[in-house]
Design goal:
alpha/beta; Rossmann fold; 3 domains; 16% strand; globular; binds adenosine-5'-diphosphate; binds magnesium ion
Length: 570
């Protein structure tokens, strides 16, 4: 009724989205406000959700993605239509590629106008644009479908191989009013969003048979294993079989890097010589040489634990596929594992030990060399010592040399603490990951960033300061992409393509927002700055001067970078 006295209580699309998220325990939104989702962000905050507002949607999406990885609940990213949507899509595609559960909710413009291409404000056919980059893409066309739409997005994001889901919310659906009773009835609480997937018993026996016959077995732990949070069973299996293991980058710390069975320091030898390999939540993609020779023995037998059946035989034949969730598969393996049936050969273990010792010595020499100007190794040695004393700290890491060398130098002792470029080897994830990790854990984060890598998401320094997050950003500033000393091969005076501003004072950026800036040109001052910054639990940025001539083109993956044989050289 017009005077409202007997009118039934009403709700609208905005409220229903917030109610649906809350009903399913999704308590944080990472986004950038604007038309048509500003009121959604406001209302979420008013209703007790945490809203973290970013400066760029890719960073908001990366924060949501890493939150999904750390919590096993989909991280929620909120974007505006068209360009904001597309910026977020970069992160959604990256989440899908990495197997991180995430939902990007985007407002969109008037469907009638968009579909006839009549030129709406921020016109874009977002649903179709999202499809190739997402695990699934859905549009909610009626307010009474919001409950089921959100439920579908949640289940799709976390079940099976996790991934990114796109949820399209046209402006008119957000604003549409329905009776509160109809709205409440339409909400769905998702029961068992990521059900256990038990492996078939015969796949377990087959896997153990392969490992029993092996002289030189090897276990590879991937970030799927880290995601599964089956830490105790994985450790028990590794220790009871005595099989040497290698962690993939984001699986470092699942078992401590200084565990006696860790053969990271003899990686190439272990890959090339293993006669049986058990992959646990790791794909045989480019990061593992596609499982092929010369990196691997052509006769090695593979066991693979994965939740995704089609991952098997994707790059080379898998002798014993174990399809199931890793927690269930590991439990089944442990239950079937007899005493002493699996015994790695002593020659194998001895040779790995020898090689580890030689490589460890070589590394120690590089870490103590302390050249002037400072190189990657001596800077990382300083950071490593400080992190050792702050084991609760998350480590975000991106760059080329900064990534490759840090991965080798900085040992991890706890699971899911190392967050890096992942499956794509991509840049631009650093500040988003740092914010997502700090927000979900409340723990300090150290982000070790190449100067180029930092640039992609550097404005989020303001976000870190606005929310007063305990993030210390360490920029390895060698004045360029890969290196800072490249020369222009032409006649004009422009900088070379890989060159960035020499001696840029990145520490002043954070001072503009009230954070603490430091400049460090030697390991001692770097160490002092990091200790102080971590103790303060406040935003800080350390600009770390690295020799422009340190580092190699494309870091450790120079083989992927084609170079012209005919072009002029320096
Ligand atoms: P890495 O880069 O560390 O090698 P990948 O991302 O390539 O790791 O591989 C992770 C694999 O783990 C994917 O194939 C994915 O399907 C799988 N996976 C993710 N979560 C689970 C889980 N809970 N149980 C089983 N497999 C999983
Ligand atoms: Mg650089």
């Amino acid at each position: 009724m017009a005077d409202g006295t007997n009118a039934p209580p009403m709700t609208d699309g905005f409220h229903l989205v917030v109610d649906a998220l809350q009903l399913n325990g999704l308590d944080t939104i990472y986004g950038v406000a604007g038309i048509p989702i500003t009121d959604l962000a406001r209302l979420a905050q008013a209703s007790g959700l945490r809203y973290i507002g970013f400066r760029h949607e890719s960073s908001a999406g990366n924060a949501a993605a890493i939150a999904g990885y750390l919590t096993r609940k989909p991280g929620v990213c909120l974007t505006v239509s068209a360009p904001g949507f597309l910026n977020g899509m970069v992160a959604l595609a990256n989440a899908t590629t990495n197997g991180f559960p995430m939902i990007q909710i985007s407002g969109s413009s008037d469907r009638a106008i968009v579909d006839l291409q009549q030129g709406d404000y921020e016109e874009l056919d977002q649903l179709n644009a999202a499809k190739p980059y997402a695990k699934a893409a859905y549009r909610i066309n009626r307010p009474e479908d919001i409950g089921i739409g959100v439920a579908r997005a949640i289940r799709t994001a976390v079940s099976g191989r996790p991934g990114g889901v796109y949820l399209d919310l046209p402006a008119e659906v957000l604003g549409a009013v329905v009776s509160a009773e109809v709205g409440a009835r339409s909400l769905v609480r998702v029961v068992d969003a990521a059900p256990r997937q038990l492996p078939a018993p015969e796949t377990i026996t087959r896997a153990l048979e392969v490992l029993e016959k092996a002289e030189r077995p090897l276990i590879i732990l991937g970030k799927g294993a880290a995601y599964a949070q089956a830490d105790d069973d994985i450790r028990a299996f590794v220790e009871r079989t005595g099989i040497p293991f290698l962690p993939m980058s984001m699986a470092k710390g699942l078992l401590p890097d200084d565990h006696p069975q860790c053969v990271a320091a003899a990686r190439s030898y272990a890959l090339a010589q293993a006669d049986a390999v058990m992959l646990v939540g790791a794909r045989l993609n480019w990061l593992l040489g596609h499982g092929k020779s010369p990196q691997w023995s052509p006769t090695a037998q593979f066991v693979q634990l994965d939740i995704q059946p089609t991952e098997m035989d994707s790059n080379r034949a898998i002798a014993a596929p174990v399809v199931g969730d890793i927690a269930s598969s590991m439990a089944a393996l442990l239950a079937t594992l007899g005493k002493g049936r699996i015994r790695p050969g002593s020659a194998w273990l001895g040779e790995l030990e020898k090689r580890k010792a030689v490589n460890a010595q070589r590394m120690a020499a590089r870490l103590t060399a302390n050249p002037v100007p400072m190189d990657f190794h001596s800077a990382l040695a300083a950071i490593k010592d400080v992190l050792c004393k702050n084991p609760e700290t998350y480590l975000v890491n991106e760059g080329a040399n900064t990534l490759d060398i840090a991965r080798n130098v900085i040992g991890m002792r706890a699971p899911r603490k190392r967050l890096d470029c992942g499956t794509w080897g991509v840049m631009g994830v650093g500040m988003g990951y740092a914010i997502g990790a700090a927000v979900t854990s409340g723990q300090p984060v150290v982000a070790i960033e190449g100067d180029s890598a930092f640039g992609f998401s550097g404005m989020e320094i303001e976000t870190i300061c606005r929310y007063q997050l305990p993030v210390v950003t360490v920029i390895f500033n060698n004045g360029g992409i890969y290196r800072g000393d490249d020369a222009n091969r032409g006649a004009d005076a422009d900088p070379a393509p890989t060159v960035l501003m020499k001696e840029a004072r990145y520490e002043k950026l954070i001072e503009a927002f009230g954070g603490k800036g430091y400049y460090a040109a030697d390991p001692q001052s770097l160490s002092r700055a990091l200790v102080e910054a971590l103790a303060s639990r406040r935003p800080a940025l350390i600009n770390c001067a690295i020799d422009p001539a340190a580092g190699t083109e494309s870091g450790h993956i120079g083989n992927l970078n084609p170079q012209s044989a005919l072009a002029p050289r320096k």
